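Notes to self, Glucose-1-phosphate adenylyltransferase:
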Amino acid sequence: MSKSPVPSGPLARTAMAYVLAGGRGSRLMELTDRRAKPAVFFGAKARIIDFALSNAINSGIRRIGVATQYKAHSLIRHLQRGWNFLRPERNESFDILPASQRVSETEWYAGTADAVYQNLDIIESYGPRYMVILAGDHVYKMDYEVMLKRHCESGADVTVACIEVPRREASAFGVMHVDESDRIVSFLEKPADPPSVPGRPDIALASMGIYVFETRLLTEELRRDAANPASDRDFGKDIIPAIVARGGAVAHRFEESCVRSGDQAEAYWRDVGTVDAYWQANIDLTDVVPALDLYDRDWPIWTYGEVTPPAKFVMDDEDRRGMAVDSLVSGGCIVSGTAVRRSLLFSNVRVRSYGEVEGAVLLPGVVVGRYARLRKVVVDSGVILPDGLVVGEDPEADARRFRRSPGGVCLITQPMIDALGQ
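result:
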């Protein structure tokens, strides 16, 4: 590792963010049957990818590329509607880069590294000094400018963002084994016996899938990797381990650059990759003081601002009162004669009378029929729930009709509802 002169001024303005958003996220089951994981709705208003993109914008990065692949229409439509405000006349750019066989007529993106390699000509046309490679499927707030500075100061070939996790849970991650100066001495993918952080035997460092390179060096690495027929064309399997092996990689602790709402707030990062994790992360937002602050005006989460009428609550009889408590309710919703508790209602949800809704994540356009009782559910967008439907009271009945997770969350889609009448 050798240090190069650190440019004056914000490093983010010399950088390009490249978001890898092609993955399905199969552990989210039917939620990703029609959309890629980064396009999954989150937080009553946004999509998962909005967090990585918002971090880039809030950090000062004004050149962004998004590589898409799996069932990309929903994601591309969202990006076109919500992220078209960057202007080339201000030296800004926003490129949506679907897998389009640009290098080979027979291959799509073969891996995360290949998803960058196939678009090197586009990247080089902008001339960024630094590349910030991002995963598009995690929920967190982070200032990439801090990580860029750390990268320059260390003289590393690559800087890898890492999050501290309990060592007993680290086998589910790619784990960085570091020395006392946070130089990465080895990288292990889902190890049975994860190495601990020096001086902290119960803590391990897990990769967040966020990397900083100088563009020149990244280009060299990608071209070298593309020439290797044995490569998986993947950052975690090929690019990063090769740099680690020659001593050119350092770890950057998420705690140093995470954006907190208060001095005591946790360093919030979530991989909402399972139905249970997705439900819990959404429901956690209903806490009086949630760990993830969506109301922080200093670090806003940008998204597509759909034009909707205000949310509306109607009926005020003793057994038919439209209300929501400890809940997030988006525009276009109408809650009529039912109490909604500890739930998230995305845009244009309709909840009809005489029901009970608690611990529900209702995606856009859901209609809840009269006398329905819902507990601990995720309902996919556009689903029409029939009158009198009861979910969350009989585990065996729920498992026969719907997708019931190990944690007892019921995922409901329209085909599942349609099958009830067969």
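- The CA atoms of residues 174 and 236 lie 8 Å apart.
- The chain has a mean pLDDT of 93.
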